[in-house]
Amino acid sequence: MVFQKVPHRAEPGHATAPTAPAAIPAPAPAEADETALPGAAGEKEPPVDLGPRLDGVRIVMINWRDPWQSTAGGAEEYAWRISRHLAERGAIVTFLTAREPHQARVETKDGIVIRRMGGKFTVYPRVMAWLALWRREYHLAFDCMNGIPFLSRLVLRRETRVVSIVHHVHDLQFDAYFSPPLAWFGRFMESTVASRVYRNCTTVTVSESSRAAMRDKLGGRAPIEIVHNGGPALEPLPPGPAPDAAPTVVSLGRLVVQKRVSRVVDLARSLSETHPGLRVHIIGRGPEGAHLAEQVDRDGLHDRVDLHGFLSEEDKNAVLSSCHLHVTASEFEGWGLTVIEAARLGVPTVAYDVDGLRDSVRDGETGWLVREGETLAETVSRALRELSDPRRAEEVRRACRAWASRFTWEAGGARMTRLVATELGIDPTMDTPDPAAGKKAKM
Asked: Which residues pair with 368 in a beta bridge?
């Protein structure tokens, strides 16, 4: 995962002068044509409101992993991008997370102090103990619940605001990874325990369907706000597949059980007769990589499937933009960050009609959803037939770009910044806010 650099800032705790908001490209309306999209030559975009200043506000972001760990995914990018935006608005941000053996225990990136402690499971008690020790330090905590909550509300002071971040309900993920007793325990922690601990805390999720699933399955009654995933501003559209090119599909993301990437690999075999010359590209790394390599060997797909592993941003975009179709076989997502990533390059997505993906894919416009009673192969075949018509392909390509232009990290960060101000009772019109001034934030 590659992150863009941001301008240098002073270390947390040092005095900084308020700065004026930078000009950020504004999202284009969905119906705009290509020349009106951000990144088009000659366009001058108006500045976007980045949210109120948060100078002096001390925030802790608690997340299971950080973006530089081997199994990091969209949730980690989300937590880091939001943290970085809050720091750019003047907040003093600490990022609490687990630690892999090669990582430093404490380091500073982009003005954010990263503190790593514990492993995959021991991170939970270690973080609770650390927060209990530093419970007076923070005005607000973001508690990212990746299935199991950190229960920060139990150890932080009552005056410290806690915002829970939940990307999606993890019930199916517990079943995929754990034995029935452990899966039951995970569901119990995510629903019964978390709904009680965070009953008075605002919750943030990333899509309408995730919010609906949380209400339906987890039973919590706390307010649930939606702050979408983002992405960089659109750049000029790279060349797409040649009109006479053989059909190509790509899968982008972590190679883990719930992504079911083996189904995408199998398309090279199941669609070989209806779509001669079909080639499948797999971009990403993870524990399922070895199993996918075995599948390619077993089915003799070396001449039709490319397992790229991790690619640099430039190489990844080159492969993505050369493909006709992006395919995700995931059985659940909070949103589908890779869907928008492909759409920014004009590449539509085929995905299952499940929570999160039914929000990020606009069926029939920016992609196709696999409905109940359909198979992945049938939907991919139908999509490739439609895209073989140059006029239809160009229509979908433009729709993808317009849809993707609506989602930027600046917009998501601004929304989260306003939420922080609301939680702390900060007047957003103040140039240099006092984080202890609001009724909710008296320390």
From this structure: 350
Tally of CB atoms within 10 A around 111: 21
**What integer pLDDT is reported at residue 440 of this predicted model?**
41
- For 78, residues 6+ apart whose C-beta sits below 8 A from its C-beta are 165, 167, 206, 229, 337
Q: Encoding tokens for residue 203? A: 């919750």
d(CA 222, CA 264): 38
CATH of domain 248-404: 3.40.50.2000
| Sheet order of strands, 279-283 included | 305-309, 279-283, 248-252, 325-327, 349-352, 367-370
Q: In CATH, what number does 49-231+408-441 get?
A: 3.40.50.2000
In the chain, what are the domain boundaries?
A: 49-231+408-441, 248-404
How far is it, in rounded angstroms, from Cα 298 to Cα 416?
48
Angle ∠(268,363,402) on CA atoms, nearest 5:
100
**Confidence (pLDDT) at 432:** 59
> Do residues 281 and 308 touch, judged by C-beta distance below 8 A?
yes
CB 272 within 8 A of CB 304: yes
pLDDT digits (tens, 9 = 90+) for 341-351: 999 999 999 99
Do the domains 248-404 and 49-231+408-441 match in fold?
Answer: yes
| pLDDT tens, residue by residue, 406-429 | 999 999 999 999 999 999 999 876
For the chain, the 3-state helix, strand and coil shares in percent, each to the nearest 5, are: 35, 15, 50
Q: Classify 162 as helix, strand or coil.
A: strand
CA angle 46, 6, 9 (to 5 degrees): 110
Q: pTM surpassing 0.85?
A: no
Summary mean pLDDT of the chain: 85
